[in-house]
Amino acid sequence: MPDTSARLLRLLSLLQTPRDWSGPQLAERLGVTTRTIRNDVERLRGLGYPVHATPGAAGGYRLGAGASLPPLLLDDEEAVAVAVGLRTAAGGSVSGIEETSLRALAKLEQVLPSRLRHRVNALHAHTIRLPGTGPTVEADLLAAIAAASRDRERLRFDYVDHDGAGSLREAEPHRLVHARGRWYLVAWDTGRDGWRTFRADRIRLRTPNGPRFVPREPPEGDYAVYVAKGLEKAVWKYVARVKVHAPAEEVAARLPSSIAVDPVGEHACVIAAGSDSPHMLALYLGMLEADFEVTGPPDLVEHLRELSGRYARAIAGAAGAAGDSATARASGASADARAGAGRA
């Protein structure tokens, strides 16, 4: 790579990967000597790129964070991914970044090679995004919550619940989760001594942040699973805890992953199932193809009682017809036997 400018660009591209590069490794990749690498590193530093060097056998070069944002070098796939992400952000659920996203996208598309510009434009022209109906969240709010989670600082904020009641909360933020067009904060509520999920659009932060905290293990073993299970329970009008007389593994295979299945011994389990009506919930339980026990809610118990009576009445006539048919067949066989005996 005889051209110095081209070599510097290639070196910068290598240094932008999140790893340490030794001098010999860079020299081998660029086909030059380690002395040339040292000279090129100095040139990059002179251009404002903060290249850090660590001495020793385990040391190497790494591009650090500078006072200003340096130009980034993207390969083809990275450039397409960034362009698609900016288009999505321009119409997403985070408010305040729409115009910024479009400006950044315009700059990127201006320098994209034609082959990549055609890919990005084709994807944009032949995909349709349904407009969101959920609330938007300020980008600054999400950034502040994420920063507190990163720095392990408690948050103090005013919160309005789904009933419209306001309260002052103090919580240890752990993760932001985006689900169903909304942003949720998973945090340990110190006032209620337990995990809680807060909708970010209902949060109004107070300053300054509180003291630092020690991170806790994720609820349910995973933040996303915890939010998904909470949403499943929140959206249903009727929720029932049902004991199913079948192994937990078999029942879990027939249900969405967001529904909790708690084993009760080897041959039974308990599930928390929900639906918008007792009728639909009863149908779902029947599709489990296993015996089950229900103790509530009362509407579901009553509906199951009505269904059991309806199904029993549905087969009552069939059972009588089957009995009559069997009697007729027996009578016919007896008559045939007597006729045969007479002929003999």
Automatic annotation (TrEMBL):
Keywords: DNA-binding, Transcription, Transcription regulation. Pfam families: HTH_11, WCX, WYL. Residues 4-59 form the HTH deoR-type domain. Signal peptide: none annotated. The keyword DNA-binding applies. The keyword Iron does not apply. One of its GO terms (molecular function) is DNA-binding transcription factor activity. PANTHER family: PROTEIN PAFB, PTHR34580. This is DNA-binding transcriptional regulator. It comes from Planobispora siamensis. The lineage of its organism: Bacteria, Bacillati, Actinomycetota, Actinomycetes, Streptosporangiales.
